[in-house]
Amino acid sequence: MAGISIEKLCKAFGPVVAVRDLDLEIAEGEFVSLLGPSGCGKTTTLRMLAGLDFPTSGSIRIGGRVVNDLPPGKRDIAMVFQSYALYPHMSVAENIAYPLRKRGVPRRERDAKVMEVARLLRLEALVDRKPRHLSGGQQQRVALGRALVREPQVFLLDEPLSNLDAKLRAHMRAELIELHRRIGKTMVYVTHDQLEAMTMSDRIAILHGGLLQQFGTPADVYERPANVFVADFIGTPSMSLFEGTLHRQGGQLEARIGSMVVPLPENHVTWSGGADGLAIRLGVRPEDVVLGDIGEPAVVKLVEPTGHENIVLLTLHGLVVTARLGADVRLRPDEAVHVGFRTAKLHIFDRDAGTRLNTDGPARVTAFRGLQSIGQR
Amino acid sequence: MTSAVLGNVASPRRFSLQRHYALLGMLLIAPTILIFCAVIVYPLITAIYLSLFSIYTPTLQGDWVGLENFRTMFGSPEFWFTLWTNIIWTVGTLTLQLLFGIGTALLLNQNIWFRSLARSLILFPYFVSTVVAVLVWRWMFNDVYGILNHALLAAHVVSMPVDWLGQMPNAMASIIVIGAWKYSPFVVIAVLARLQTIPQQLYEAATIDGAGVWGRFWDVTLPQLRDVLVVIVLLRTIWDFKEFDLIYLLTGGGPVTSTQTLPILVYKQAFGLNAMGTASTYAIGMLLVLLTFMLLYLARVGRGKESA
Amino acid sequence: MRRRPGDKSIVATVATWTVVLATIFPLLWMAITSIKPQSELFRIPPAFLPESVTLEHYRTLLEDTPFLTYFGHSLVIATSTTLLVLVLGVLGAYSLVRFSYPGRERLALLVLFTYLLPSVVLVLPLYLMMVKVGVANTLFSLVIAYTTFSLPYALWLLRAFMAGTPEDLEWAALVDGASRLGAFVDIVLPQMLPGIISTAVFTFIVGWNEYFYALVLVNSDSARPLTTGVMNMLITSFNIEWSLLMAAAVMMSLPLIVIFVFLQSYLTRGFAASGIKG
Q: Under an 8 Å CB criterion, which residues of A touch C?
C-alpha cells in the first residue's frame, strides 16, 4: 500500500519559509500534480519526498512507514529531474542499469531488465550512445527508463517536460498519461504549467507562498476554486475579477460592482446578510460571458481571434471583461454590444480573506474518488 | 533555487539523516585539517613563539628575550632598508608584469596564425624551474661568453661588457626584468581568459559610437578587466613580495645588500648569522607587512566596487 | 581590401610572434647551447646555430654527475606529494562543496588565507619539527613540506572545479540507491577528471620546481632533489661548466616539456578556474 501521507510539513531556509504546514494524503496509484508559480514550495516539497532535503518539522510517510530519516535510495522511489540528470560518462544502457547495479542485481538479470525498459520506451537503437548524443526527447525517455527499471512504489517528476518544445511536450504528456495508466503506480508531478496539471492529474495540489491553496480534481479546481488565487491561476484566459459588495435587497441577493448590479440566485452564497453588505470579489470565466440583444451595454475593446474561437475584451460599466466567443462571431473594436453573465456560474469571494463563498463547495481538499475521475462529478 | 546543499541546518530539531551527512562531511575534511594543523598552523604559532627567543641555530639552544627581538628589528636600519628594497623590487616587477602581461594577452586575443601554439609557448617561463631560469640568464649575462654582452658590443652600444648582476643599478634592474619575464605568463593567462569572455558586440557598439582603437581599449576592455586585475594585482603583489628563489640565486642579495629582500634577510639571519630567533622575528615582521597590505588593499577595492 | 572578421591579421601575427619568440629565446638558447660541442661553446663571438650537434654534455651529465640521483629524488618527491595532495584535496573539496556543517565557510576562508603565507615564516619551525621527529634530510620531510603550499592551492582549484559540476547528477545517484561515497566515486570523480588532472599537473610542477624548502630542509645528497642538486653542482665545481649546466637545465625541464606536449590544455584550464574566480 504505497500512498503518500504528508503531515504538517514545514521547511524553512533560515528566515525564509518555503513550505508551511502542508497536509496531503495521496492515494496509492494516484497521479497528483503539485502546481503553482515559481517559489511556491512545490519543488521543495518534492525534494523532501525524495529525501534530498530535510523537513524543518512534520512527517512524510510512504506506504505507511515514516521516511524522514531514510536516505533517498531506501524510500522505494524514483525521480525524473528537470534536467534529466543523465550520467554523462555512461551510455544509455549503463544509465538505466545503474539503479540495479546499486541494488546488487546480477549482470544477466540487469541486462535483461534494461533491454525490456529500452524496448518499452523505444530506445533499443540508442543503448550504446552517450547522453550528449541524444535529443532532448530521447534524453527524457532515458531518464524515465532509469526510473522505471527500479519498479518503485512512487514516481517523483520535477517539471520533466519544461525543457522540451511545445509539440514534443504535448506528445510526451500523452505518453506519460499512457504510462501511468499502464503501470498504475503513484506519481507526484511538479509543474508550473496548469495545462499539464489539468490534463494529466487525478488530483491537483495548488501551492502558493508555501501554503496549500486547494487539493482537488481538475474539475473541482476549475469549477469550484477555493480562493481568488486558484480562481485566477487556473484557466486560460484567466477569470475576470471585480471588486464590489454583496447586498440583500428586499429578499433579492445581488452583487454591486461599481455602477453595475448583478442579481444572484437565492442560495448562491453562504451569507447571513447584513445591512452594510459584504465586501466581495466577483469572478466570471470567459465562457460564462454571453452576448445577446438584451443585457448590460458594453463596448468592444479588443478582439483576439485564435482560429477556433474569439477572445474578446469588453468594457462594461468601466470594467474590463474577457469573453470567450465562437469563431463565427464577427466584432470590431468600439462596437457596442449587450452582455450578460451566466449567473449560476458566478464565483463570489470574500474580498479580504479571498475564500470562495459559493454554496456548492468547495472543500479545500476533496477526497480521492478513485482513478479516472477526471471529468466526473 | 540556488545551490540547495544536502542537509540544511535550519532548526534546532535535527533529524539523524541530516546529522549523518554533516558528520560525513566533517570526516572527509578531517585529514586535510589535520595536515593543515601540523604543517601550517603549528609552524605558524611556533614561528611567533620562536621570535620571542634568541636561538643559536646549530645547537638550537635559546634564551627567552620577549619582545626584545621586535624592538631591535624596528630599530634596525637594515630592516627598513631591506623592506624598502623589497618594495622597489615588488613594485618594479609587478608593473612590468602587468604591462607586458596585458599587452601580450591583447595580442594573443587577436586573430593570428598559429595562435594556440603561441599561447602555449608563452607559458614556458612561468612553469620552468627558477633554477633553470637562473642558469639560463646567468649564462646569457656572462661577461665573456654571454650572448647579451656580445650583441651589445657588436652593435657598439657599449664598449665593455656589462656587469649585469654585480653592479647597481644593473642588479636591481636585472632581477626586475627577469622576474617580469618569469611571472608575466600568469597575468597573460588570467587576462586572456577574461578577454575571451568580452562580447564582441560591446566593441561593435563602441565603434559605431566613434571610438578608435585606444578608445575601445580604454572604455570597453579595461572596465571589463577590472575584476580580474584586482585579483591579479593582489596575488602577484603577495607572491612577488615573498619571492626568495629568484633573487637569492641571481644575486644572493648583492652586491652587498643592494638587492636584499626580507625573505633573504630571514634566511641570512637563520643560517648565516645563526640567529634563528631573530630570523623568525623578521619573518613575522614580513607577515605583518603583507597582512597590512592585504587589508588596506581589500578595503580600498571594496570601496571602489561600491562606487562603481 | 576590407578585412572581414574571420581573416587573420598579418600585422598582429608578426607582432605577436616577435614577442613570443623573444620571450622564449632564453630557453631556445639554453637548448642550443646544450648541444653545441665544447669547442664551439666558448667561441667569441658566439654563433647562434651550432655547426655540429653533439650529445656529449648529456652523456657526461648522466654518467659523471649525481644528476640521475637527483632526478630520481625529484620524481619520487613530486609524485608522492601529488598523490597525497590529490587524495586529501579531492575529499576535502567534496566536503567543502557538497556538505553542510558548522564552520564550513570559515574553513574555506582559512584555506584561502594559508595560501598566501610566506614560506619564510613556516620553514624555520618546519625545520625544527623535522629535526625533532628525526626525519630531517629525508625525502619524506620534503613531501610533508611541499604539501604545505600545494594543498591549499589544490583545494582551491578542486573546489572551483567541483562547484562547476552539476549537483543533480549526485541527487539522481542517491535516488538510484547509491550512498554518498558511492555517488562520489561513481559520478562525481568521473565528472571531475579534467579538474583532477589539472590539479595534478600543477601540483607536480610546483613540487618539481621547488627550491627554498629543499635548500633549508635537506643538505645531503641522499635526499637532494634536482633544484638544489644542480645548484650545488654549480657551486662546488671549480670551473663552471656551462655546457653541463645547460644540459642539466634542459633535462630538468623534461617533465614540463612532456606535460606541454600532452597535457597542456589542463594547465590553462587550471589557471582559468583559479584565476578568474575572486
A: 50-52, 71-74, 77-79, 81-83, 85-89, 98-99, 102-103, 146, 150
